[in-house]
């Protein structure tokens, strides 16, 4: 089982996936900082300082007027926190827009490289049909022997 696990981990796809996840986590931190530290304050300024995250409706329980969302949740009351949901939706749209712009920029760079005649790395070539059939024939020979 250890040998099988080692072979699984050594495959290129698993390593590519691991690298993708690590880079994705780092990229997520950058995008979240962009949204939370740069874009959201500008949006708040444009909207007159409205902070949607603190908006909620008390469904049941006693919560004093003007209580923060955190304290209202801690009181045990049933809270309908529509502001937090609205903020999450706005953040999603901003993040999706930033990712769209990044992908568009990368595609523009690729297109410029193609126009300049720079070689674009080709996908690795797989075995030909004849090579596959030969391998299958050899496997069948070894199994029947």
UniProtKB/TrEMBL annotation:
The keyword ATP-binding does not apply. It is a multi-pass membrane protein. Keywords: Cell inner membrane, Cell membrane, Ion channel, Ion transport, Membrane, Transmembrane, Transmembrane helix, Transport. Belongs to the MscL family. SUPFAM superfamilies: Gated mechanosensitive channel. Homopentamer. Pfam families: MscL (PF01741). GO terms for cellular component: plasma membrane. The keyword Zinc does not apply. The chain crosses the membrane at residues 12-31, 38-59, 79-103. InterPro entries: Mechanosensitive_channel_CS, MS_channel, MSC/AndL, MscL_channel. GO terms for molecular function: mechanosensitive monoatomic ion channel activity. It is found in: Cell inner membrane; Cell membrane. Channel that opens in response to stretch forces in the membrane lipid bilayer. May participate in the regulation of osmotic pressure changes within the cell. This is Large-conductance mechanosensitive channel. It comes from the Bacteria. PANTHER family: LARGE-CONDUCTANCE MECHANOSENSITIVE CHANNEL, MECHANOSENSITIVE CHANNEL MSCL.
């Amino acid at each position: 089982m250890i040998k099988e696990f080692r072979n699984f981990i050594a495959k290129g796809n698993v390593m590519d996936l691991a690298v993708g996840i690590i880079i994705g986590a780092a990229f997520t931190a950058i995008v979240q900082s962009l949204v939370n530290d740069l874009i959201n304050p500008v949006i708040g300024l444009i909207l007159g300082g409205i902070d949607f995250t603190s908006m909620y409706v008390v469904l049941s329980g006693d919560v004093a007027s003007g209580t923060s969302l955190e304290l209202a949740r801690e009181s045990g009351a049933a809270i309908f926190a529509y502001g937090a949901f609205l903020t999450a939706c706005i953040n999603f749209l901003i993040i999706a827009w930033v990712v769209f712009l990044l992908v568009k920029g990368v595609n523009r760079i690729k297109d410029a490289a193609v126009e300049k005649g720079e070689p674009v790395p080709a996908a690795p070539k797989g075995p030909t049909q004849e090579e596959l059939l030969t391998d299958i024939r050899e496997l069948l020979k070894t199994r029947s022997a």
